[in-house]
Design a protein that fits this description.
By secondary structure, the chain is α+β, with helices and mostly antiparallel strands. The protein has one domain: YefM-like domain (YefM-like fold, 3-Layer(aba) Sandwich). A four-stranded mixed sheet has the order 1-2-3-4. The radius of gyration is 23 Å and the shape is elongated.
């Protein structure tokens, strides 16, 4: 039983594991042409198949750590963080 739901701009396809196995090529093609395809296991969403272009766009690094801290809303706030002098604490692990 394939389920189609409308989510945002495009139809979002949900497949059971058995359907995804039987129609893997179709799942891949729809992920490329229509958007993310959800695979359910035991009636619950388990994974999402997305096109590599979308994955790369969503996971692309936006700047570096220095840029992140430079853009912090706390920069220039006057927050004063001091390290407590002394030895390192034991972690208990």
């Amino acid at each position: 039983m394939t389920i189609m739901t409308i989510s945002g701009e495009a139809a979002h396809q949900a497949w059971t594991v058995a359907e995804a196995k039987a129609h893997l090529s179709e799942v891949i093609e729809r992920a490329k042409s229509e958007g993310p395809q959800t695979i359910t296991r035991h009636g619950r969403e388990a994974v999402v198949v997305v096109a590599v272009e979308e994955w790369e766009r969503k996971t692309a690094r936006k700047g570096n750590l220095a840029d992140f801290f430079a853009g912090s809303p706390l920069r220039g706030s006057g927050l004063n963080v001091k390290r407590i002098p002394g030895r390192l604490r034991k972690s208990g692990l």
